[in-house]
Amino acid sequence: DDDFLTVPEGIAHFLEHMAFNGSKDYSKNGLIKKLESLGVEFGSNLNAYTTYEFTVYEFNIEVTESNLEESFKIFRNWIDGISFDDSELEKEKGIIIEEDRVLKSKTSKFTKSVMNDILKGSVYENKEPIGDMNVVKLATKDETKAFYEKTYQPKVMKFIAVGDFNATKVENLAIKYF
């Protein structure tokens, strides 16, 4: 959908961050505690990132029936239950701006030049997945939530499970939650 290309640069990355600030079934701390109860350690077992074309949420768990069920519930909350608390929205702005500053200090001029050559003439030319910091600074709850409601839809998502589990059970959970 070409409408995705008109979204202010950085809103998708902003949502990636907001997913960890609570949802309809989990407070911010409740989500973190639930992930930890599944054996997920921030950094080593949990990752989220935004590229030019998609956002990925992934974590590793011990495969048990209850862990699988709870994992699907968490992913479902990320699909349609993210909270948009004003204070958390403002905190994330600072975190993303700092992330951008660190990224720019580590990115060499050579790397930036190569990426500009690769992306030349594409819709991604002169853009970065982290976004435009002016957009991030001015992002509103309504704008961010509107993008979320339009794009975070099971019909445009892929769910990939890898591991030692009963495929039929995982398929049934996918049907139940998505």
Write up what this structure looks like.
A two-stranded antiparallel ribbon has the order 1-2. Helix 1 (11-18) packs across helix 7 and helix 3 runs parallel beside helix 8. The radius of gyration is 17 Å and the shape is globular. The chain is mainly alpha-helical and 178 residues long. The protein has 8 helices and 2 strands.
Q: How many E-type strands? A: 2
Question: For the report, how would you describe the main beta sheet?
Answer: 2 strands, antiparallel
Question: What average pLDDT do the residues reach?
Answer: 88
Distance between the termini: 21 Å
Number of helices: 8
Low-confidence stretches: none
Please tell me how large the radius of gyration is. 17 Å
Question: Percentage of helical residues?
Answer: 40-55%
**Physical arrangement of strands within the biggest beta sheet:** 1-2
Strand content: 5-15%
Structural class of the helix and strand makeup?
Answer: mainly alpha
The best one-word shape is globular
Summarize the topology.
Blueprint: H1 11-18, H2 28-37, E1 46-50, E2 55-59, H3 65-80, H4 86-106, H5 109-119, H6 133-138, H7 141-151, H8 167-177
Antiparallel strand pairs: 1-2
Helix pairs in contact: 1-7, 3-8
